[in-house]
Design a protein that fits this description.
By secondary structure, this protein is α+β, with helices and mostly antiparallel strands. The chain is globular. The protein is built from 3 helices and 4 strands, in the order βαββααβ. It has a 4-stranded antiparallel beta sheet, covered by helices on one side.
């Protein structure tokens, strides 16, 4: 995984995955940490991968359970990674810990402002 600093104005392409609260948070986290995250780190041309369980400062329940961000140098790199055998394995694994209606994925061009 390449993890180099970006210069101001340089852009990258980001996949953001947002997961709803599961019925069994510990089971979800164990699978995510030990299986899904490992699969995601194998995506070709992945520049950076970070994930975390969400929380709110006041301790109330946030809208979502977990958010993951995966960064690539370009849209083409991201799409190729998702279509690779590694991407297909990660996509197929989603059914092992959540349901299609319990997560969202979005893509964005990210530009470093400072």
């Amino acid at each position: 995984m390449r993890n180099s600093p970006r210069q101001k104005g340089e852009s990258m392409y980001r996949l953001t995955a947002i997961y709803d609260h599961p019925s069994d948070p510990e089971r979800f986290l164990t699978h995510y940490r030990e299986v899904h995250a490992v699969l995601a780190t194998k995506l070709p041309k992945l520049r950076n991968y970070e994930w975390g369980v969400t929380e709110l400062p006041d301790g109330s329940k946030p809208a979502h359970f977990l958010v993951a961000v995966l960064d690539f140098d370009s849209k083409e790199d991201a799409l190729a990674a998702l279509q690779s055998s590694e991407g297909e394995a990660a996509s197929a694994d989603i059914a092992n810990f959540t349901t299609p209606d319990a997560f969202q994925m979005s893509f964005s061009q990210v530009v470093k402002a400072a």
